[in-house]
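Tokens help. Consider this.
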Amino acid sequence: MLSSIKSHIPGWSVLFQAFITLVVPLLIYRIYKALASLADDKLVSSGGASSMNASDNEEPPIHPISANYDTNIDKIRNTIGLNSDVVIRELTMGDAKIRAALIFVKGMQEDQLLKMEIMQMLRDTELPLPLIERLPTNSVHAISSMEELTKAILFGYLALVIDGRNEVLLINPPSGPARDITEPVSETLLRGSRIGFTEDININTAILRKQGVTENLQIRSYLIGHTIQKELAVVYLDQIVNPDLLREVTDRIEGIRLDYAAESGYIEQLIEDNYLSPFQQTQNTERPDRVMAALLEGRIAILLDGTPFALIVPVTFSMLLQSPEDYFERWMPGSLLRILRFLAAFIALMAPSLYISFISFHPGLIPTELALTIIETRQGVPFPSLIEVLILEISIEILREAGIRLPKPIGPAMGIVGGLVIGEAAVQAGIVSPFLVIVVAVTAISSFSIPMYSAGITLRLLRFVAMLFASILGMFGTILFFLLICCHLAKLKSFGVPYLTPLTPFRWSDWKDFFIRVPIFMMKRRPKLMKTMQNKRR
């Protein structure tokens, strides 16, 4: 009787797996909640500290510009005049010999002919005259504080200081050297526009204006950075965007506190909802057509001077697997390509973990002939499946990174040749099996099919976590990992919009542009998730 009862009691391995199954999700959830609460506490404490530190919020003293020419020039020479690239060109105006100075930074104004015309006009001018109307440019305005003057000169304006005037004229915004408009490098298309953003924010906003004539395109400018300031622009369509979304975006941007924003990635990390999530909550793009399509859906674009990458908010998971080419082709080929990308994303995330699960825990689930073939190819391999997969996966990741960092002419060739040589050598040395080489190769190719490079990085990162789950709990661990990812995505939001919309919360009307893309004439309404002011497309 006792032996019969003992025969029905699971073994220690089964009990251990059951224990891990119960404990691991609870432990992950507890760690996640603890880190989230810690982040909230830091945010509150930083906000309190900034409000308590009055010296950081105090307005700097304002020094008015003097009517005395020598006083103004001395102040400029003793401050920004110490820089070797700041030029102070002094001259006299007219027969009255009124002293004046033209101040600028080398390289920030390319129009040398304009400078010569201004200096010649000043020498021939007799005051008092409407000087602004005489200047050979339409971009002229006056300022009256020394702080504004120093910032404007260093930013690239031409400054005109005249003796006897307690204001300075700023002539022409900066127009330094800029890169030509070229095809986007990170988002290549076979069919579509060849125009991409540049590093000049003024050129980028002009590109958006040239996408089509509309009075609804609104652009708000901000200065970001405490030590080094850069211009940031928030772009939206006035009659479409949800006012609550616009208010949320502007509040987060106005709350940014940092010394210098080198790239839009800084802004992305400072305004996202959940920094603990491996998934990006903004979409970055070099393509103006993608930005304009997002604006027409009620989304908001963020442009930063000095980078060709614009940010689009809010973002959903399906947007990361969509390409502008889906809409340029007919709806059936476009839908097929989109379904293939979803399949490729699943393979890029789960293929190695499924291999580990089947080989190490559930070989009985594999068809007999295939199982015999795999067993035959694995003869002589000295490592367990996890170590075997890690060797190849890490090698592929190193080759991928090396291909990006190497000079452009040899980078792609090095990646392909290196992959072939390492894979063949590893098989010949008996370190890995040929079947695993096929699995890893298909996984790498699938990750390349994802349109957003940053989304591919996320899947590459999570792939290693999935492999760890599979090595501990087998197929159950693989399914558990997938369910944890689904739960996290269901909870994640981007600027208040659920990340898995329209899958959850379920919105049938938005499925017209989800897994498949229906014909354009059937897409008569904008996505309901955006709660736009104009729901119907015109």
Remarks:
- Residues 42-57 have pLDDT under 50 and may be disordered.
- The two ends are 79 Å apart (CA to CA).
- Residues 12-52 form the longest helix (41 residues).
